[in-house]
Amino acid sequence: MANTALETGNAPIFRAGTSDAEIEAAAMKAMSRRKYVVLFWQVAILVAILGVWQLASDLHWIDPFFYSSPTAIGYRLYDWVTEGTENGSLWYHLGVTMEEALIGFVIGSITGVLVGVALGRNRLASDILSIYIKAINSIPRVVLAPIFVMIMGLGLPSKVALAFIMVFFVVFANAFQGVREADRNMIANARILGASNWQVTRNVILPSAMSWIFASLHVSFSFAIIGAIVGEFVGSLAGVGYLISIAKGTYDAAGLYAAIILVMLVTLGAEYVMTLVENRITRWRPQQHMDAQ
């Protein structure tokens, strides 16, 4: 029998008699090729955007005073890294923002999971408190920044409080919904086997809701960063938001974009770490293989 595989486009087509090992090898090859194709286009799009931006700035199709240019932003980032900002070391400002965001993220995530699971498991309590949760959630969180700064001052607590609020409702909503979406048949089977409420919650509900919870954690850290920066922008003595505020006040477009890029890099790094943690914790789940198309 022939053991061959033909490739048309990106998907391999196998002839009758192809062994499982050949099929797996061809699939892995197609997936590897697809990763390189994706990476190529990601880099190409970024280079194209930066190239058009630089060209438009050099030829004055756009005003460099307002839009700056990739080279000016790169030089500003280099100066900040090597010589620091006019208001202190870049690492000090970045460390202040990260401290605020991390504390708010951790407290908000833990509280959101605990409250979401508790209310998800207690329908009466969730019905009673739902109106208050909806009322608080309807308030745009960023407008709370001046209130927190006024009550708690310009230091760490006001920024942590805003980061906490930004994170809590995202995590709470997903944890609550994840509990409600748990497989009722598995819960019933666990109860038949004599499992207590705590055992059902720990061994059935939480694993079932873990995908929902991690989905919220992936986006909530960026919200924690936003909360910390908005709080710093409203009133602070240090942090990336403080640098943005100074750049805005001095019409320093390159400084504004440089600070935004810093936030993007930190958030992407946190997203990568979160993915590694999720993959390690949820190794029990079946692997989701992408179709090599």
TrEMBL record:
Topological category with respect to the lipid bilayer: Multi-pass membrane protein
Any Pfam family hit: BPD_transp_1
Cellular component, GO, one term: plasma membrane
Ranges of residues in domain ABC transmembrane type-1: 94-274
One biological process term in Gene Ontology: transmembrane transport
Keyword Transcription carried by entry: no
UniProt-listed Gene3D superfamilies: MetI-like (1.10.3720.10)
Transmembrane segments: 36-56, 101-119, 131-154, 160-179, 212-244, 256-277
Keywords in alphabetical order: Cell membrane, Membrane, Transmembrane, Transmembrane helix, Transport
Cell compartment(s), UniProt: Cell membrane
Chief place where the protein resides: membrane
Family from the record: Belongs to the binding-protein-dependent transport system permease family.
Listed PANTHER family: ABC TRANSPORTER PERMEASE PROTEIN HI_0355-RELATED, ALKANE SULFONATE ABC TRANSPORTER-RELATED, MEMBRANE SUBUNIT
Full protein name: NitT/TauT family transport system permease protein
Lineage: Bacteria, Pseudomonadati, Pseudomonadota, Alphaproteobacteria, Hyphomicrobiales
